[in-house]
Amino acid sequence: MKPYGGGRELSAWVRKGPWTEDEDEVLRRHVMENGPREWSSIRSKGLLPRTGKSCRLRWVNKLRPDIKKGCKFSADEERVVIDLQAQFGNKWARIATYLSGRTDNDVKNFWSTRQKRLARLQRAPGPRRRPGGASSSRGNKARTLLHTGGGGSSSSSRPAGDEQEPHPCTVAPLAIVLPTHCRYDGGAPAELGSSSSSATPAAAIRLLSFCCGGGNGAESMAASGVDPLVFVDPDDEEAFCPEPLAVVPPTPFFGLDEEYLHFGSAAAKQPDVRFDDLPPETLDFFDLPPSGQP
DNA sequence: AATACAGTCAACCGCAGGAGG
DNA sequence: GCCTCCTGCGGTTGACTGTAT
């Protein structure tokens, strides 16, 4: 291991960079014995050549047992973040308290990624997004959404093995209706099965799932094999959501306090979803203006 | 196949606030 | 009241990986 930060006297030496399994184990043991505190004593006792800050960060962001691992932000988690960010500003730690299993770092990373994406979309559609009209990548994107259990950020760096594991999240249905001018122009992802092949593109309904950390009732949905992302044929009376315009808040809603529950119910009373409220992923299904075309 | 781009994640840094002496 | 130490938070960066060209 190459020590960062140069070589001073031993007592001052602080290791930086990625944590090793051994270090994690030492840290876990410290927390088991002392609780999640006295971070600086870890170094002063010579347990680890890490700063207290580093130890705390490692515990909070990675080692805490209640953290969701390998689970993308679901569509609803995204919405919660977006709503709460509008309400609280960049108070990531506070926002994270509304999303069990998520850390402030998670929220922060999600938000910055989203901002980057939106900024790019505003700048220019870009040839990569629409390589000559209907992109064959749409199907891939949808499949990615399906696999990652929600409309959240598209997956990229997730190890392949994660998809095989039981989804750590719990799910409950959330209906979001895309505006009529949006378009789903691809064949249904293979996972969606043949039933969705006749879906009317302009009115494609996405039933997005969301992850409810620590929830209980929704867990059974996941266990019962409910698809986290389903395209529904509006002509199909059985599948079509009777009141599709409502963005239905789950109950309980990530253990939200009264304040947010009120906020959530207020949002539910507004049937029209603001464009900006939609997960950025949704933009993949929009027809982009022709101005960007050569 | 090579390359560029985009997304995700982990970790660092600086700053602010609170507690204790 | 001041100082120091510790903890927590927010911003930022870099490595890594997946995808599109």
From TrEMBL:
Q: Which Pfam families match?
A: Myb_DNA-binding
CDD domains cross-referenced by the UniProt entry: SANT
* Major site of localization recorded for this protein: nucleus
- Is Transcription regulation one of the keywords? yes
User: Which GO molecular function annotation, any one, does this entry have?
Assistant: DNA binding
Supply the alphabetized keyword list.
DNA-binding, Nucleus, Repeat, Transcription, Transcription regulation
Cellular component annotations (GO), alphabetically ordered? nucleus
| Region of interest: Disordered | 118-167
Which InterPro entries does this one have? Homeodomain-like_sf, Myb_dom, Plant_Male-Germline_Reg_TFs, SANT/Myb
Do you know which SUPFAM superfamilies this protein is assigned to? Homeodomain-like (SSF46689)
Feature: compositional bias, Basic residues: 118-131
| UniProt-annotated location(s) | Nucleus
Taking every annotated instance into account, which residue ranges of this chain make up the domain HTH myb-type? 14-59, 64-119
What positions does the domain Myb-like occupy?
A: 11-63, 72-115
PANTHER family reported for this sequence: TRANSCRIPTION FACTOR DUO1
Name of this protein? Myb-like HTH transcriptional regulator family protein
Q: What is the lineage of its organism?
A: Eukaryota, Viridiplantae, Streptophyta, Embryophyta, Tracheophyta
